[in-house]
Amino acid sequence: MKHSLECPTWLSADERRMWWELDSHVAEHAGLTPRNAERLAAFVHAYHELIILGAFLDAYGYTRQARKGPVARPEWRRYAKASRTLSYHSGALGLTPLGRAKLARTKRRRET
């Protein structure tokens, strides 16, 4: 199968695998633009980071003991940021039902 978008070289092997799986879906719903390639790279990277950080937080907990008492781990902030990034780009790429509906509505407006 020929892939539509060029995969960025800075993505890890796992991220590239996910990129190729989502490539055709993005082409079908959001169209193939350089901006969507950037969004897909950000989405894939955020998803991979969510998996890694989620496993770390599950293993070591969401807080750590400090001199003043328990505090949130810095990994928790990274996890929350990756989650926001994932949510933002998934809608723009048509990876959610609402995102697909918005993209379809935008395409219909352009055609008329």
Structural features, described:
The protein has one domain (13-111). It is elongated and about 65 Å long. Helix 1 (13-29) crosses helix 2 and helix 2 runs antiparallel to helix 3. The protein has 112 residues and is mainly alpha-helical. The protein has a two-stranded antiparallel ribbon with strand order 1-2. It contains 4 helices and 2 strands, in the order H-H-E-E-H-H.
Q: Helix amount, in percent?
A: 55-70%
Proportion in β-strands: 5-15%
Summing up helix and strand content along with how strands pair, one would put the structural category as mainly alpha
- Multimeric status of the protein: single chain
Euclidean distance between termini CA atoms: 33 Å
Q: What is the residue-averaged pLDDT?
A: 81
Supply Rg: 17 Å
Quick gist of this model?
The chain is built from four helices and two strands. By secondary structure, it is mostly helical. The chain is elongated, with a radius of gyration of 17 Å.
Structural descriptors:
single chain; 112 residues; mainly alpha; 7% strand
Summarize the helices and strands and which ones pair or pack.
Blueprint (H helix, E strand, L loop, with lengths): L12 H17 L4 H27 L2 E4 L2 E4 L1 H19 L4 H15 L1
Antiparallel strand pairs: 1-2
Helix pairs in contact: 1-2, 2-3
